[in-house]
Amino acid sequence: xxxxxxxxxxxxxxxxxxxxxxxxxxxxxxxxxxxxxxxxxxxxxxxxxxxxxxxxxxxxxxxxxxxxxxxxxxxxxxxxxxxxxxxxxxxxxxxxxxxxxxxxxxxxxxxxxxxxxxxxxxxxxxxxxxxxxxxxxxxxxxxxxxxxxxxxxxxxxxxxxxxxxxxxxxxxxxxxxxxxxxxxxxxxxxxxxxxxxxxxxxxxxxxxxxxxxxxxxxxxxxxxxxxxxxxxxxxxxxxxxxxxxxxxxxxxxxxxxxx
Amino acid sequence: xxxxxxxxxxxxxxxxxxxxxxxxxxxxxxxxxxxxxxxxxxxxxxxxxxxxxxxxxxxxxxxxxxxxxxxxxxxxxxxxxxxxxxxxxxxxxxxxxxxxxxxxxxxxxxxxxxxxxxxxxxxxxxxxxxxxxxxxxxxxxxxxxxxxxxxxxxxxxxxxxxxxxxxxxxxxxxxxxxxxxxxxxxxxxxxxxxxxxxxxxxxxxxxxxxxxxxxxxxxxxxxxxxxxxxx
Lengths: 259, 231
Description:
Helix content of chain A: 25-40%
Shape of chain B: elongated
Shape of chain A: globular
Oligomer: heterodimer
């Protein structure tokens, strides 16, 4: 681990801490001994080639991938322990390659189902849908009929409604146009400012580096490089469980997506 | 658990109503099988015993339940197909839904679809096989408990292969042998409900269906959490 990350650990409680973390997927070591500490409110960009272990690291943080060897704690939960791994899932939000949506249900039905499943106040749905440009005619369209960008946006709406403490974004810019990508960047900054920790894996490096406070390079299931590139955004309301007024989706972007 | 079960069941039923797979594919498939069974076993083939029933009438309960079972495979494959197609099983795990609730909700949704299939196929069977019902209460009990058994055991085994690419072909391989006792008990009990005879013992076979259902209800509630983690 670099000196940089150790000094950061001293100034804030770690949201994620792995020591020699190995994660086996069908006996293949997708992570082969990761040492990594991420402090609260950091926006960490994970970069690396395909198959480097970025997605597995995000799934490990989400409590979805097994910790086969080593030690790991996420938001204070020991992810090596099966019952604690289940508990950490409630506090993390994962935007993955899969969008976790049902093609046959409408945009609104999908969001409302996952809000109920996550035991979230249903009143949060409407403002989030409005902010993400899903409140107009799009709400009644089946997810199987919307564009990839709109599908991604619906998935993002569920994530925002969950208000997770740890945001895990796997290629969050994929399938989005320029305005959509701006929105994702603003959302990540906003969530970080209000107390969330963000880990994103992206190949869109120019854009992702702009919002990241730290860049971690991963290859062959190991951390190869760890560098701080920015400073944290703080907000005085960070201790509250609200996220403040969300950034809005640019309607111009929505119109283009609809076509 | 009950809340999560209802949430899953209502979501699955909304998906089925929206996709119309039940009305557009499963029911036509089951109806086609009934007709083909009727064609394959000629009503004039022979007369069985003193009761003067044709072979087709004699085998009607078995053919009906076979048609139901094969139709159920389509519903069971879809039950987890919709979850696996876009990674929703991960989201279910992350939402912290009660695994027992997920199991019961899935089974309830499949059971409701099966009851709809059985009503349509049952009416079709009365016409195609030219049979009438002697003991209605017994038949209702047989249908309810056989449906419960098929749904509970079927959902449990479908969940085992939910995360596999080859789940569509594995579900029949796993589920059909497990449901053989249901097919046997439901066939004999249904025959007793259709034809009154001295040796009829429909109650015993219905009891077997109840035991089978309770067994898989208990196993499902206890084991579904582990299955959900592994799938």
